[in-house]
Specification:
- Keywords: Membrane, Transmembrane, Transmembrane helix.
- The chain crosses the membrane at residues 67-88.
- Residues 1-62, 91-110 are annotated as: Disordered.
- This is Pyrrolo-quinoline quinone repeat domain-containing protein.
- Residues 293-454 form the Pyrrolo-quinoline quinone repeat domain.
- The protein has a domain at 123-263: YVTN repeat-like/Quinoprotein amine dehydrogenase (Methylamine Dehydrogenase, Chain H).
- A hairpin with a 6-residue loop joins strand 15 (282-288) and strand 16.
- It has a four-stranded antiparallel sheet with strand order 1-34-33-32, with helices on one face. Strands 2-3-4-5 form a four-stranded antiparallel sheet, with no helix packed on it. Strands 6-7-8-9 form a four-stranded antiparallel sheet, with no helix packed on it.
- The termini are far apart.
- With 497 residues, it is mainly beta.
- It is built from three helices and 34 strands.
Amino acid sequence: MTQPPPPMPPHQPARTPQIWDTDINQRSSAPPGFGPPPPAFGGSDTGGGGSGSSGGSDSSGRGRRKALFIVLALALIASLGAGGWLLWGKTGRGKKPGSQAKPSAPARVDTRLDWLIRNPDKDRDTEANGTPRKPVTWFAHGNVIRTRARDITAYDVRQGTERWNIPLPGVLCAAARKPDGDTVAVLYSKTSKTGSGDCNGLMAVDLGSGHKKWDQSLPLNNPLNTDYGNTQVLMFRGKVKVMGTSESATFAADDGKVLDHPKLRFSDNCMENRASTDGKALLSVLGCSAGDGRAFVQRMDPETGKEEWTWKVPDGLEVRGVPSVDPAVVAVSRRDRSDEITDLISISPEGRTRAIISLTGNGNAFDAIVRKDTVYLASQGQETAAHTQENRIIAIDLANGEKRWESKAGGNRVSTPLGFIDDRPLIYQIAQSGDGGRLVTLDPRDGAPTVVKRMPAESAEEERNVAYMGQVYFEGDRLFMFGEPNNRNEHLALSFS
């Protein structure tokens, strides 16, 4: 079934006609599935040397030439051991100035527990409007920086000591997942300090200095609105986008100046309420309030704002997340099962549906990681005969939705995808009783595992307590774990190297 595109916004050239799926239930065949979807974390929403000698008195100069060759050979070997600095510059041949090549694998497998951070009582609360707040973590200037209910705190990555702290004027509502340079923006409840209120304050922080850059209230078009509702904060290319179900606005990251505050995105009451970027392109999700529940995904050039394509969300589905911008992948839920992610949909470079990957049961597809036209997902945990939990990592082709392989990642554990080392999926396996957790990489061809980090057995219980329902990060050859701030664990965070 086809449907004409939505009315064009004024003063824009006509788009190329597109074919859109309009009703997922009218497909000629059932969408391909792969088994249970991934659970939330824990199973429950990246020299040589040489020597030589020369002797004799050769009047022809062969001795001097031999000595010269040795010196040149030593210089060459030393330059290779130093990453090619003498021959190609400090960054190495083929690298842009200032870039650093990431190692293909961590250098040391067995780790040690470097530090722990106690869980302060003041963190055991909720965010504005009474919903559980979602902490955000950034890494900058040798610090791991973490949002909390009423402040932002930076910890030294090596020692875990507090480097700086910025109080929030209210209670945290949301924060940008990725900073723009050293600037990051957070949204907070400006009218309440008790854990309930309107999320209408926006503040920018410099992650290098640990100082506030600017602070202002969200502009409102509708006098009946008190905030934007279910708000997301996104940063890219010197801008801060704040998007919600009722309004959206764009600010300059440097000084907080309002750059755009549209009343409507389209003439038919469609407006942007979610977005995701990889720095090169922007995927915007537009919801419509015309009563028919229509929604669209647009790929935009973030620098020019030019629309590259528009994809209509199939009828009966709601976009819940964007696991990947390029290739484009959206996570959706069926409206009769809005409490769970039900499908992943890959979109072609022309803005058409490629494959619908059906997920069964409860799970969290936001843990999906994507690389080179393959999505890697964790299946739901299952109890083993030894009364432990285990699951599998499943690789799915985004072109056709077919499963490429399924891997236990080398152990009977619950595995969660974290990112990639080169093109190899990086997986964290949670600790078990008397046995620390592990980091493994998987061969993208067949899922064969390689252990790259083993956490010590002595801290296995504390590791599991923090990692369960928490977040795990691998940065600079160090593993960081932050637990949910509302839990009753003794420790909030720990780190291994």
